[in-house]
Inverse folding.
């Protein structure tokens, strides 16, 4: 099991990178760099490449709509060269609010587009001439008529850069289990992962090329081992999940809300959304069941945290994703690193 964390996208990127340097020394294996509607992820990943030596650097995630597939492939290949083979390409659709609201691009055909992006990226990394005609028309069939199939000038560090997909819906998850190296889910409750996701996971894995290896899965949550930090961590979790479950999307179209419902809290998820969208954000956070918060965090005495890590491992999680709430993150991560299954 590997140890991973997310670089907060609202923080100062230079200060965040310096913290990752210290966490790398403490045993951190993977850092994910988000790209919402803040600074772009790629600039920060390039800076991390120069400041770190061992940690894998993943985009968590690059939205597929904001770049052409070939640019996404070029970017991943460049980052892999700069990191000497430590890059991970994390991709996803984001959501209509960001894609249409910030980028001004239609949010359409998310699963089919993701599939084509994966296919084109791997074609570029194999240095094949890109000749793809689907949703993405490369070379462009219209235009000036001067376009021709091209291949990447450089020889990539790896032709099989790992691709992880942030998938929540059934069709997207099935496609992820079939084609990607890894899956970035949301709010993993290990005891209920089969209940919520078992069907599409099995369907995708049945079509998976064995050469891809086992599907890698991230899961974990806010982490606190010191009693004085327990309430801070739980409150942070409540605020974050209230935002995602309640405010990320509209009524009837919120993927995060659906995930909470499918994992056993349908009424509570609807209540949180109603409260949040009515502007009652603190009440929305308070309405999240304590059982849910305890299930999706790593907050408590060492024995409890070890039990949660074991449950995640048993459920198939390969990367323990943590957000440490502590005054000494290197110390806490170093301790947790010792508890990870081999």
């Amino acid at each position: 099991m590997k140890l991973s964390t997310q670089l907060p996208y609202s923080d100062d990127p230079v200060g965040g990178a310096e913290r990752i340097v210290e966490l790398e020394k403490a045993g951190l294996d993977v850092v994910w760099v988000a790209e919402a509607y803040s600074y772009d992820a790629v600039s920060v990943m390039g800076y991390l490449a120069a400041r770190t030596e061992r940690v894998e650097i993943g985009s968590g995630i690059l939205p597929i709509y904001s770049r052409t597939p070939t640019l996404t492939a070029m970017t991943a290949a460049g980052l892999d060269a700069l990191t000497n083979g430590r890059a991970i390409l994390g991709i996803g659709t984001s959501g209509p609010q960001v894609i249409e609201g910030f980028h001004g691009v239609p949010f359409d055909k998310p699963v089919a587009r993701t599939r084509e992006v994966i296919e084109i990226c791997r074609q570029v990394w194999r240095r094949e001439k890109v000749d793809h005609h689907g949703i993405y028309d490369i070379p462009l069939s219209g235009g000036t008529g001067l376009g021709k199939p091209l291949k990447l000038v450089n020889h990539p560090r790896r032709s099989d850069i790992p691709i992880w997909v942030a998938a929540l819906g059934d069709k997207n998850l099935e496609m992820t289990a079939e084609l990607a190296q890894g899956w970035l889910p949301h709010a993993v409750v290990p005891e209920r992962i089969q209940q919520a996701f078992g069907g599409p996971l099995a369907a995708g894995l049945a079509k998976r090329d064995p050469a891809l290896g086992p599907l890698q899965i991230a899961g974990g949550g806010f982490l606190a081992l010191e009693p004085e930090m327990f309430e801070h961590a739980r409150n942070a979790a409540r605020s974050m999940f209230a935002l995602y479950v309640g405010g990320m999307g509209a009524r009837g179209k919120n993927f995060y809300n659906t995930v909470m419902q499918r994992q056993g809290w349908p009424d509570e998820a609807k209540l949180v959304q109603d409260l949040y969208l009515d502007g009652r954000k603190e009440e929305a956070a308070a309405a999240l069941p304590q059982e849910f918060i305890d299930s999706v965090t790593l907050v408590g005495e060492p024995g409890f945290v070890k039990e949660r890590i074991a449950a995640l491992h048993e459920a198939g999680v390969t990367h323990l994703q943590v957000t440490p709430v502590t005054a000494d993150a290197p110390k806490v991560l170093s301790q947790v690193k010792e508890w990870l299954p081999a």
Summary: The longest strand covers residues 216-224. The chain has a mean pLDDT of 96.
